[in-house]
């Protein structure tokens, strides 16, 4: 039980750590176009992302797949760029367009982020023999951290749209554009590392 609580804590601390803010940005932009009333859609999106990163996290930890760290570190901001672009191009409709495509993208992008999580988890595991339990606890911790991020961004959206009367489209455009800019810089900075 001690190992479970330790790896659970490491999981949520890892995703909420501002040093690894790329994962935080992805979760924010993934649900940033939605409001509290869209909670079912947001839950499906986050679940699709979780399924994706759980698959590659497990495959990477068990050494079934290996991908160059530099490639993954470049692809993570690309996933953020694509998601932010999708939000911006979604238009001003009350329901974001391409919802089904968003679920597929969230699952696919989760596969990429899972390989990023695996680099951190592999460094923690060392020669541990109880990998399955620790992997499960770490994944549950990641999910808990994601729920904190999603809850926070949905509450901010609720306050801005319902209390301060900011138009939903304006909030989505501002948030997605800001995250687009940050992720574009991240991708540009990591591009040269692909050739090392």
Automatic annotation (TrEMBL):
Keywords (A to Z) from UniProt: Membrane, Transmembrane, Transmembrane helix
**Pfam families named among the record's database cross-references:** HupE_UreJ_2
Specify whether Protein biosynthesis is a keyword of the entry.
no
From what superkingdom does this record's organism come?
A: Bacteria
* Spans through the membrane: 20-36, 43-65, 71-89, 101-121, 144-164, 171-188
Q: Is-annotated flag, keyword Transmembrane? A: yes
Please state what the protein is called: HupE / UreJ protein
